[in-house]
Amino acid sequence: MSNFSRQIRFSSSVIRGLQYRISRSFTTIEGHRPTIVHKQGLDILHDPWFNKGTAFSMTERDRLELRGLLPPNVMSNEQQIERFMADLKRLEVNARDGPSDTNSLAKWRILNRLHDRNETMYYKVLIAKIEEYAPIVYTPTVGLVCQKYSGLFRRPRGMYFSAADRGEMMSMVYNWPADQVDMIVVTDGSRILGLGDLGVQGIGITIGKLDLYVAAAGINPQRVLPIMIDVGTNNEALLKDPLYLGLQQHRLDGEEYIAVIDEFMEAVFTRWPHVIVQFEDFQSKWAFKLLQRYRNSYRMFNDDVQGTAGVAIAGLLGAVRAQGKPMIDFPKQKIVVAGAGSAGIGVLNAARKTMARMLGNNELAYESAGSQFWVVDAKGLVTEEREDIDNDAKPFARKTKEIDRQGLREGASLAEVVREVKPDVLLGLSAVGGLFSKEVLEALRGSTSTRPAIFAMSNPTTNAECTPEEAFSIVGDNIIFASGSPFTDVDLGNGHIGHCNQGNNMYLFPGIGLGTLLSGSRMVSDGMLQAAAECLAAYMTEEEVLKGIIYPSISSIRDITKQVAAAVITEAIEEDLAEGYREMDARELCKLNKDEILSYVEDNMWNPDYPTLIYQKD
After folding, report:
1. In the record's cofactor note, how is the cofactor described as bound (predicted)?
2. Can the peptide bond before residue 156 be classed as cis, meaning omega within 30 degrees of 0?
């Protein structure tokens, strides 16, 4: 090659590089590329991944041998949605199985049928009506779905690994048809929401979560995988139910249980080394142990421990802002926590770390932060006098000298603790419906805060510690109220509204997953989770938080997720964990500014648009 040719080539590459740095245009990975299919005719119409129903164009109908198999009128996406919504309203009543089947479950059944025949249309409807349908595919309706799953099961969705498959999981994982999986949600069914051990029926929660990963984060639905690990059940009703679909044996425990989870993790990461695994609804006994066992070796996180904590932290920081104070005043908040399970301890650990970081992030700061919490479990106030105290709760046990000065004792009731502590925040993660009784709420009226906050975070709705009506009517109009499941706002009269903020995990877990995926981070670090929580806390305007609105509208979930994912990517870069994703290597990723990271995220979010289908013989 001549020097002139080399010079021309060099100059061209420099020009391309300059153009790239000037425009920084990111070609969408999830864009409108034609899709090659190896089937035609009825096979296409029966495949939910490729079926467009009446939206197939005439040229596609000819190309895919569909002419005559569909009504002649080609319908637009908007017309399809309009038809479906009309059918939904008409069929809701007809879809009921009887008096025990609620209206929400009827909607779930109809949506599920659409999911079975046309995935793109399903997600188009879900995104367009996310406020209405998120409570159907996720909490609270998903709890009812899981309880009835053996009766609702029509076609398999996801994978099932069981104790009976020990030694076979490495080969089993190749039975899944997708060569690329970006996101797995897995459960062992041991603690589904606040409903307890539902065994194999718990797979419903993993399907619901992944629906939200697709709708909120734009994870490609062909690259998600819901998984159930069936190690048995201790639910006696299921063990005796002849129609139960899972293993009818008591749960494995100890080393046998660990061996099954170890084998599963090795199998999925062998086939899909870059997959992210979200653990969901594992009982407290195993949630922390499995998180600590795997988090430094695999790309995984536990939404009940870390996601719930992040959403709660965002709400707690929002409550500080609603008091007219800066978020940096968070370490001054006195917080009574009802519940010491995996969610409660997760929130406590995250809140303590957040306070400590604001106080200087040293040992003294960490110790000082710990003094801001009073933990009450089923046995009452947790103190150092408690026998057989759980190791995870031990750091938050109150010292005897402290409680003596406060007029409290080991095992003091929640009402007693609230009355004596006069907290800024009453946080419920107990899964005990109605725990915030009239006595407890009346005690909170003595709070030293100008605007006390009540977080009734347990799911589903029946497990909420109190209702917003109870909170506003007993404590007063000026409170901040948040819950885990959706409630309607309360009319306080005289044109005033008591805002009911839903502290839903869907504000964070889709962004955490998407940000981890697009950063290529080797792990999900505490810093990435903290960045996600702080991003959510800052999302609300000053005007909104002063009105008592501390969480945004679910209708903005795509934008919220984009912002959270960008914050996670930025933190991964700062911690030197980012390794890049596909064409965007770590070096290029590090060059992006804030706006460019947001564009990069948006360009990689899947949208439910019908692709052009091209037939090709095998």
Report:
1. Divalent metal cations. Prefers magnesium or manganese.
2. no
Confidence of residue 148 (pLDDT cuts 50, 70, 90): confident
Residue 14 reports pLDDT greater than 70: no
Of 446, 193, 174, 456, residue with least CA distance to 303: 193
Q: Which DSSP state fits 266?
A: H
The per-residue pLDDT of the chain, averaged, comes to 90
Contact present, 305 and 287 (Cβ < 8 Å): yes
Cβ neighbour number for residue 313 with a 10 Å cutoff: 25
Give the relative orientation of helices 526-539 and 308-322 as an angle to the nearest 10 degrees: 40
Burial of 575 (0-12, 13-18, 19+ CB in 10 A): middle
Structure tokens of 258? 């660990």
Direct distance between the N- and C-terminal alpha carbons of the chain, in angstroms, rounded to an integer: 42
Burial class (CB in 10 A: 0-12, 13-18, 19+), 382: buried
How far is the C-alpha of 617 from the C-alpha of 598, rounded, in Å?
40
In 92-235, where does DSSP find H-type helix?
103-117, 119-128, 130-137, 141-147, 149-152, 169-172, 203-217
Q: Report the alpha-carbon distance of residue 413 to residue 603 in Å, rounded.
A: 52
Burial (0-12, 13-18, 19+ Cβ within 10 Å), 76:
exposed
Per the annotation, where are the binding residues for (S)-malate? 191, 459, 504
The whole-number pLDDT of residue 19 equals 40
Give pLDDT, residue 11.
39
Residue ranges of the annotated binding site for a divalent metal cation are: 280-281, 304
- Determine how β-strand 613-615 pairs with β-strand 300-302: unpaired
- What is the percentage of the chain residues whose pLDDT exceeds 70? 93
* Angstrom distances, CA of residue 495 to CA of 247, 374, 478, 498, 616: 55, 36, 14, 10, 63
Amino acid at 339: G
List the binding residues.
191, 280-281, 304, 459, 504
Residue 561 backbone dihedrals phi, psi, to 5 degrees: -60, -40
Dist CA 490 CA 472 (whole Å): 8
pLDDT band, residue 17 (cuts 50/70/90): very low
- Please, what's the b/e burial string for 349-366 (b: 16 or more CB within 10 A of its CB; e: otherwise)? bbbbbbbbbbbeeeeebb
Catalytic residue annotation = 138, 209
| Cα–Cα distance measured from residue 322 to residue 316, given in angstroms and rounded to the nearest whole number | 10
Rounded-to-integer distance, Cα 49 and Cα 590, Å: 35
pTM for the predicted model, two decimal places: 0.84
